[in-house]
Amino acid sequence: MRYKISGRQIDIGNALQTHVQTELNAVVEKYAERPTDANVVFSRSAHEYVCEATVHLSTGLNSTAKASAPEIYAAFDACCAKMEKQLRRYKRRLKDHHRERTEPVDFLGASSYVLASEDENEGAETGSTQPIIIAEMETKIPSLSVGEAVMQMELAGAPVLVFRNEAKDQLNVVYRREDGNIGWIEPQF
């Protein structure tokens, strides 16, 4: 597994890098058969250290965890514990699932845009009703079953996920509703 361990405006020593590789490797190998790479970023937020970890699995799914603590090792350990919990749930759901994925997830290319909020538009010309695009980037849309899409959304901690439904070969959306349940949008053509 490839590791990318970095710090945002803080220096990461060799001892911490070794600790991260050892601990994260033990957790990931326990619950995921074929992890491909991991990205761990440390930063400071006031008096606390923040650790953000993302593990990419060969099935195309990503697991993301974030934690903070007054000490950098404690921040990583809390993040690692969250990652372990997510991967344990993911593995349990795969066992409970009707079929196991034998091939990696297919991805479609798409464009992703970030639009300026109304507060940021106040300085723009007043006659324009068009939103201002402040970022444009390439993104990938996975080809998943609905159950796998819900798992991916929960693993990533995202409020919404756009995916291509394998059963109908159409774009679908799953999202977390205000009542805590999961919503599923399937267009009818």
TrEMBL record:
Its main location: cytoplasm. Signal peptide: none annotated. One of its GO terms (molecular function) is ribosomal small subunit binding. InterPro entries: HPF/YfiA_ribosome-assoc, HPF_long/plastid, RHF-like, RHF/RaiA, Ribosom_S30AE_C, Ribosom_S30AE_C_sf. Keywords: Cytoplasm, Translation regulation. GO terms for biological process: negative regulation of translational elongation. Residues 130-183 form the Sigma 54 modulation/S30EA ribosomal protein C-terminal domain. GO terms for cellular component: cytosolic small ribosomal subunit. SUPFAM superfamilies: Ribosome binding protein Y (YfiA homologue) (SSF69754). It is found in: Cytoplasm. Belongs to the HPF/YfiA ribosome-associated protein family. Long HPF subfamily. PANTHER family: 30S RIBOSOMAL PROTEIN. Associates exclusively with 100S ribosomes, which are dimers of 70S ribosomes. HAMAP family: HPF (MF_00839). Required for dimerization of active 70S ribosomes into 100S ribosomes in stationary phase; 100S ribosomes are translationally inactive and sometimes present during exponential growth. This is Ribosome hibernation promoting factor. It comes from Jhaorihella thermophila. The gene is hpf.
